[in-house]
Write a structure and sequence with these properties.
Blueprint: H1 7-30, H2 47-51, H3 60-69, H4 77-96, E1 122-130, E2 143-154, E3 157-166, E4 183-198, E5 202-217, E6 240-250, E7 253-255, E8 261-271, E9 275-277, E10 282-284, E11 289-299, E12 304-313, E13 319-320, E14 326-327, E15 331-341, E16 344-351, E17 372-379, H5 390-393, E18 404-410, E19 414-424, E20 427-436, H6 445-451, E21 456-467, E22 476-486, E23 493-506, E24 509-519, E25 525-537, E26 540-551, E27 556-566, E28 569-578, E29 589-602
Antiparallel strand pairs: 1-2, 1-17, 2-3, 3-4, 4-5, 5-6, 5-7, 6-8, 7-8, 8-11, 9-10, 11-12, 12-15, 13-14, 15-16, 16-17, 18-19, 18-29, 19-20, 20-21, 21-22, 22-23, 23-24, 24-25, 25-26, 26-27, 27-28, 28-29
């Protein structure tokens, strides 16, 4: 059988089907108690459908009446855009005000909670602790760096792996040795937390770890280090280097019944070596440790949690003094956990716990009980972000990176390139490689030691957005932190921080005010950066900058023209009298102004 359907017939069929469907829906809602009778309308000839439709011509007089019934209104595009922006801002504020579902997995490093990750959740963490001064080693302080990966294997089982490294000499002057002993703690291992009981009142878990702990004393452990020093285990001048198998077992109980308040009680067993040494002889070390951890966390706001923990050894040692006498001391940690967004958190705390692994976290800084400070960056790459729109999701790759940018710059003093990855709405990770030319040597300790003209400097860090106008805050406020080293023989490093404040005057004008500080082992440099952003057109922007030197830094300027070539390419041309455009170089004045260019590629 052959059907010859022309365009007119096809239109008729579509119209008939549409009204049939609408009619069925209306009849179905009129009386739910009545049964719907389905009836098939058969037609042997499609042309019959055309005959059943009555076509009428609408006269021009009718059109005038129709026009009168329509109300025409001019839309104010500017006002309409503002309304849309306000609605988007209100939605963001509502999303930001939602309470965080994230539970703290630990109250500082020394006291675990009974909380576990949900199945499939992944947490990446970097952390470090540092003394407030350089002690006997000098530098910016005795530090311990850590990396941690945690994964929710099941809803009640979390597995983890970690690595830590501390290689600074002993903090306090050792009275019993002629040369201050070098020191090394290097750990890696795996952890397991099994949530056994979980009800509306409390949780109980079993938390355990097994680790390799490399302990070094004496000799030299720094990069390119060739010095010799005494060790603390025997009278020899040769280094002691031992690999030890250590472990920990904890049974944390966390009460979750109280509003905004969680309390934890955690008995702990830690198995550490009792002696260390080499062929010449051995000496006392910590030995096994038994104790009780207690603590709690309180939700101060939707994004901020405070926490405290204490660990109390029982008939065990967890510290030694400048006479190498081992003894016990209670550990205390107090800090704040700040949620940048649903996938990134920052944590800062003060403590007298130096170890960064489950087994070593009950130990103080070697040779001292001093209070130290610590920080953690926590990132959940596969958690949903509650502020993401459907349109934005299309822009993200596998890890949902929000921004990817490459910067390349050059002027008369040096060159650099920088990579930036937006890990979430509120955090950018960055890494920079910079070279200051050899002729910039000034015979000044800061420049020649920490910038080291003629060599590369490699730095990594990130910028965290703390306040945002789009979230209802009055200003834009971000914290930027970087750390890195000059790749010279001794590889000296420094920590740089700036607090970036941005006041929006209108769509074309804004003011920036940024306190800056560089912590070095020699002296600290402090200054304040100011700038005015004037947008001349969608493609041109003038940015005059002026840095005000406060401590060990100089007044200097930078006049920049930013030109947008393409959506993905911007060019900065500037005149400046700073050593460089990056970190500590912004606080130091060069002998003469230089002209420079930056290329910004937005991927």
């Amino acid at each position: 059988m052959e059907f010859n359907i022309n365009l007119k017939n096809l239109i008729c069929i579509i119209i008939s089907l549409f009204y049939s469907i609408v009619g069925l829906k209306l009849n179905a809602y009129e009386d739910n108690s009545k049964k719907i009778k389905w009836e098939i309308i058969r037609s042997n000839n499609l042309k019959d459908l055309d005959k059943s439709i009555k076509w009428e011509i609408i006269r021009s007089n009718n059109l005038k009446d129709l026009d009168k019934s329509i109300k025409w209104k001019t839309i104010d595009k500017t006002k309409d855009r503002k309304n849309i922006k306000n609605k988007m801002k209100q939605t963001k504020i509502q999303n930001a005000s939602k309470s965080s579902k994230k539970k703290l997995l630990q109250l500082g490093k020394s006291v675990p909670t009974a909380n576990t990750l949900s199945k499939g959740d992944l947490i990446l963490e970097t952390s470090h602790v540092s003394s407030y001064n350089g002690g006997q080693s000098g530098g910016i302080g005795n530090q311990n760096y850590s990396g941690l990966i945690q994964y929710g294997f099941f809803k009640n089982l979390t597995i983890s792996s970690f690595y830590t490294e501390a290689d600074d000499p002993l903090f306090k002057k050792i009275d019993t040795t002629a040369i201050q002993p070098e020191n090394l703690w290097s750990n890696y291992g795996i952890g397991l937390r099994w949530n056994v009981i979980n009800n509306n009142t409390y949780k109980l878990s079993i938390d355990s770890s097994i680790e390799r702990w490399r302990v070094g004393s004496g000799g030299c452990f720094g990069y390119n280090c060739k010095n010799k020093s005494n060790n603390i285990f025997n009278s020899g001048i040769e280094k002691v280097l031992n690999d030890n198998l250590i472990s920990s077992l904890s049974i944390p109980i966390t009460w979750t019944k109280f509003n905004n308040l969680n309390l934890t009680f955690s008995p702990r067993l830690v198995f550490l070596p009792k002696k260390q040494g080499n062929d010449i002889g051995s000496g006392q070390f910590y030995g096994n440790n038994y104790g009780v951890g207690i603590g709690g966390s309180y939700e101060l706001s939707k994004r901020i949690k405070s926490f405290y923990s204490g660990y109390f050894p029982i008939n065990s040692t967890n510290t030694f003094d400048n006479k190498i006498k081992f003894k016990r001391t209670n550990l205390h940690t107090i800090g704040l956990n700040y949620e940048l967004d649903s996938r990134t958190w920052l944590e800062g705390y003060v403590t007298n716990s130096f170890g960064q692994t489950p087994a070593t976290s009950i130990l103080t800084i070697p040779s001292s009980e001093d209070i130290i400070y610590g920080g953690r960056f926590i990132y959940a790459p596969i958690l949903e972000n509650r502020n993401i729109t459907e349109d934005n999701k299309k822009k993200y790759n596998l890890f949902r990176l929000f921004r990817k940018q490459i910067k390349v710059g050059m002027n008369g003093n040096g060159s650099y390139y920088k990579g930036i990855l937006g890990l979430s709405e509120s955090f950018n990770f960055e890494i920079t490689n910079e070279t200051i030319y050899k002729h910039m040597e000034k015979k000044k300790k800061i420049i020649d030691r920490y910038i080291k003209p003629g060599t590369n400097s490699i730095r990594g860090g990130g910028t965290a957005n703390l306040l945002n106008i789009d979230n209802g805050d009055k200003i834009n406020l971000s914290l930027r932190l970087t750390y890195g080293r000059a790749m010279s023989k001794t590889r000296p490093g420094y920590l740089f921080s700036e607090l970036i404040n941005d006041w929006i005057i209108n769509d074309n004008n804004s003011i920036n005010f940024s306190p800056k500080i560089a912590w070095t082992g020699t002296k600290n440099l402090i200054g304040v950066g100011t700038s005015y952003n004037w947008k001349l057109s969608p493609n041109f922007e003038i940015i005059p900058k002026y840095n005000i030197g406060i401590t060990n830094s100089h007044n200097n300027y930078n006049i920049m023209l930013k030109t947008k070539i393409k959506k993905y390419l911007e060019i900065d041309s500037y005149l400046s009298n700073t050593i460089s455009q990056n970190d500590i170089g912004q606080l130091i004045k060069s002998s003469s102004p230089v002209f420079g260019l930056n290329l910004n590629f937005k991927l």
